[in-house]
Amino acid sequence: MTRAARNPGPSWGFQFLRGCDRVLPEFIFRPLRWCGTWIAVLNMPGQRANSRAYLRAALGREPKHRDVVRHFFAFTEFLMLRLRVANGQPHRGDLAPDAEGFHRLLATGEPALLGTFHLGHSDLTGFLLGPQEHRRVFMVRQRVGNSHDTEILGKKFGAWVTFIWVNEAGNLLFALKEAVNSGGSVALKCDRLEFSAKTEVFDFLGARRVFPFTIYHLALIFRRPVVLSVGLPAAPGHSTVHSSPMFVPDAGSKAENLLRAKAHFQAFLSRIEGFLREDPSLWFNFTPLNPPAP
Amino acid sequence: MPDSLKRDLKELIVNTLKLEGVAAADLADDEPLIGSGLNLDSIDALELVVTLEKQYGIKISSSEESRQALGSISHLAEFIRARADPARLPA
After folding, report:
1. The dihedral of CA A142, A143, A149, A153: what is its sign?
2. Above pLDDT 90, what percent of chain A?
3. d(CA A214, CA A194)
4. What is the DSSP letter of A91?
5. How far out from the chain centre does Cα B27 lie?
6. What are the structural domains of chain B?
7. For residues A138 and A166, is the Cβ–Cβ distance under 8 A?
8. Residue A62's pLDDT band (boundaries 50, 70, 90)?
9. pLDDT tier, A1 (very low <50, low <70, confident <90, very high otherwise)
10. Which chain B residues contact residue A169 at CB under 8 A?
11. Does B46 contact A174 at a Cβ distance shorter than 8 Å?
């Protein structure tokens, strides 16, 4: 099976970080992580260039070297958090008061399609949702060069989370079909174009950019609501989950539903852009930025 | 004698996928449904599969099986005849 290259980090990195975390006190380990981040920045010209291109769009100016390093470090720290949560460190996802869609979803108990992004603590949301809210979640993941962190998180939260590993679009869709038919909620990323058969163009970071739109087609096919969410860092041991209102594919024709879906996605994307303008290092985007519309 | 299942399938495809500018009669029996002039992608194939499952009470559970079934209208008709409850098929 082909395994795609991953965001910054060598394949042995997770085991190394876990080992250090066990034996080193934080006041020594944290400066070491900064050093490791610098090494990553210097040794990963591709990711560095992609980071710089994204930060240029988010900051509206040429990023300084320290902006790029901070971006890499934010990702390192999130990986550390994932590893620590997988090792048993307590962590809670608290719904923001404006997480209307999520509140509604939890109130009704119905399964949904959960769209999320490579942003902040979003990757943890599905893991936290299961045990906290007693929800079975299927997470769509691309198997990459090193999925160790995801695999150990999967083991810890295995009672609530099932992965749908994908490296081929056709199989993904049938795995999704099985997951939806089994009554679980399905979480999939909505910011990268891999494996996305359907795309649409949205306003994002100063340009009309292409984003995956498959989740809404799946919503129409399976008659399931869509809630988009992101988890942002909050107080230590906590993430705040922000969500869109619930999109319900029930009104009118397919074309009308897709039109509403576009507005739904654009509204949430604009909120995300607001978060990123405040703190660009939140989006772990070390791959080429979503391309502008042709 | 015209095959009523094939005719129904063509109508179902055009109506389900809202194919613009394509009439049921335009679909040839032996042309591939995916990767042909219809420009159907994997999501369209999934939508078709879900609709066919509901309509004919059949189960298509893998991309391999769907590729087989959606080979052409003729393949699809054959696939459905072999699996569907005869009561659901047109007379």
Report:
1. positive
2. 52
3. 11
4. -
5. 11
6. 4-88 (1.10.1200.10)
7. no
8. very high
9. very low
10. 42
11. yes
In this prediction, residue A213 has a pLDDT band, given cuts at 50, 70 and 90, of very high
Q: Which value, to the nearest 10 degrees, does the dihedral of the CA atoms of residues A229, A235, A238, A244 take?
A: -10
Sheet with strand A92-95: strands edge to edge? A92-95, A238-243, A226-233, A113-116, A185-189, A137-142, A161-166
Higher local confidence (pLDDT), A137 or B85: B85
Distance from CA of A114 to the nearest CA of B (A): 18
Higher per-residue pLDDT: B21 or A63: A63
| Mean pLDDT, residues A77-100 taken together | 88
Asked if the model's pLDDT at residue B49 lies above 90, the reply is yes
Least Cα distance to A57 among A270, A287, A276 occurs for A276
Q: Could you tell me the end-to-end alpha-carbon distance of chain B, in angstroms, rounded to an integer?
A: 13
Hey, what long-range contacts does A246-251 have (CB within 8 A, 24 or more apart)? A246/A100, A246/A101, A246/A104, A246/A105, A246/A112, A247/A101, A247/A216, A247/A219, A249/A216, A249/A219, A249/A220, A249/A223, A249/A224, A249/A225, A250/A223
A236, two tokens: 């230590």
Question: How far lies A19's CA from each of A8, A9, A24, A202, in Å?
Answer: 19, 16, 9, 43
Mean of the per-residue pLDDT values for chain A? 86
pLDDT of residue A247: 95
B46/A214 touch (CB, cutoff 8 Å), yes or no: no
**Which residues of chain A does B67 touch, with a Cβ-Cβ cutoff of 8 Å?**
170
Chain B residue at shortest CA distance from A169: B42
pLDDT of residue A3: 45
C-alpha span between B70 and B79 (Å, rounded): 9
Q: Which residues contact A19 (CB under 8 A, 6 or more apart)?
A: none
Instruction: Please tell me the distance from the alpha carbon of residue A120 to that of residue A230, in angstroms, as a whole number.
Output: 7
Q: Please report the residues numbered 8 through 27 in chain B whose beta carbons come closer than 8 angstroms to any beta carbon of chain A.
A: 18
Strand partners, A166: A142
Residues A243 and A90 sit within 8 Å (Cβ to Cβ): no
pTM for the full predicted model: 0.87
Q: What is the pLDDT of residue B78?
A: 94
